[in-house]
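User: two proteins, same treatment. go.

Assistant:
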Amino acid sequence: MKTVHLDDDQKSGHITPADGNVFADLGFSPKQAKVMLKQADARIAKSQKLKKDAAIAIAQWMQSEKLTQVAASEILDVSRPRVSDLVNAKLNRFSLDTLVTMLLRTGKTVELVVR
């Protein structure tokens, strides 16, 4: 059996358990941490909705064009398993940027509105 030696900077003498709010863990006041967590959760929810909407649009495009996953993968320039992940809504495996690129390859127009 091989012995692993950790460098000093990889050792931890103390681990503080998380309480479920990273902002509280970082030392913000409970009130401020609660507000910051709510704002972060809202941003994440918006991003997830954008990803879901993009994935649905791609899946609908595949269906309307009667494309197999193999045919779609060639047009989208991704592997067939990536198309399977998309169709099966495994969206944690995709960045929004990747989904936008795939949408553009379908011939769709993508608009980004920043407010």
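Protein 2:
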Amino acid sequence: MGEQKRREREQEKPEAYFIFEKKNYIFMAVGLAVIALGYLLMAGGGSDNPEVFNPDIYSWRRIHLAPSLVLLGFGIEVYAILLNPSKKK
């Protein structure tokens, strides 16, 4: 009796599956690309000589555009996690 139950449990092992579906992973990849682009736009602008001020640090690209892209990327990531593509309308 015990041997038969053990065999049944071995045969009923759950299948391995991904938590997310393909659509979720696509949105996650897009979100990561947007975040990376934001950080790349934020980089640079330094000066080789610490005695010289470089006003390019305060450019519109670094102060407004890059942080906005990073926040947008994180928003896309949250959407990708919460997205339920198998939900039928």
